[in-house]
Amino acid sequence: VLQDITERVQFEQRLEQLATHDALTGLPNRYLLSDRIEQALAHARHSSRMVAVAFVDLDRFKIVNDSLGHNAGDQLLKEVAMRLVSCLREGDTVARQGGDEFVVVMTGLAKPEDASLVSQKMIEALAPPVIVCGQEVSPEASIGIAVYPRDGRTQQTLMMNADKAMYGAKQAGRNQYRFYDTEMNRAAAVWLE
């Protein structure tokens, strides 16, 4: 008895895609991002290389959504996703964290400063205006970077510290990147108290 299982295989592949990728941008989602970070950390432990986790948050994205609508926001997110992917090296990952936040995992770094080259490239790639719903929009982003092992040895710590560094970039004037430093922990603790 022969049975054509092509449709079933295609359906299973589609389910896998939906489970691991963002529906809007096609980028890896949080689930797949988590797996990629764990793989990068495991490789870094054995190779004595560094991994950088960068939080990329679009500046003033809410204005686009509020003034031009969610379709315009979606168009902008798709364009930003393509531009971020174009900046990465083989083995790096960009994922959509949610809303207007992206996470970039840079692997195999020899020194922390290597992450600044990629981050500057991302800022430059986002600079050209985008036409969305007939309006010219200039996307900008604030980027926070945490480096393994200096800024954390676990996925959770690196993500948290990259997020703090991103807020540091926003406070410093937006459209720039900042590396995590321990002073950010002190400032967060003071603010929390």
Please tell me about this protein's structure.
The protein has 193 residues and is of the alpha+beta class. The protein is 52% helix and 21% strand. The protein is built from 7 helices and 7 strands; from the N terminus they run H-H-E-H-H-E-E-H-E-E-E-H-E-H. The strands form 2 sheets. Strands 2-3-1-6-7 form a 5-stranded mixed sheet, sandwiched between helices. Strands 4-5 form a two-stranded antiparallel ribbon. Helix 6 links the parallel strand 6 and strand 7 (177-179). Helix 3 (61-68) runs antiparallel to helix 4 and helix 4 (70-87) crosses helix 5 (113-126). The protein is globular, with a radius of gyration of 18 Å.
Write the layout of secondary structure elements.
Elements: H1 6-20, H2 30-47, E1 50-58, H3 61-68, H4 70-87, E2 93-98, E3 101-109, H5 113-126, E4 130-132, E5 135-137, E6 141-148, H6 155-171, E7 177-179, H7 182-192
Parallel strand pairs: 6-7
Antiparallel strand pairs: 1-3, 1-6, 2-3, 4-5
Helix pairs in contact: 3-4, 4-5
Low-confidence stretches: none
The N- and C-terminal alpha carbons lie at a distance of 70 Å
Q: Approximately how much beta-strand content do the residues carry?
A: 15-25%
Rounded radius of gyration (Å):
18 Å
Quick check: average pLDDT?
Answer: 89
- State the strand order across the main sheet: 2-3-1-6-7
* N to C succession of SSEs: HHEHHEEHEEEHEH
The proportion of residues forming helix, as a percent range, comes to 40-55%
- The counted number of beta strands is 7
Structural class: alpha+beta
Shape: globular
Q: If helices are DSSP runs of H or I spanning 4 or more residues, what is the number of helices? A: 7
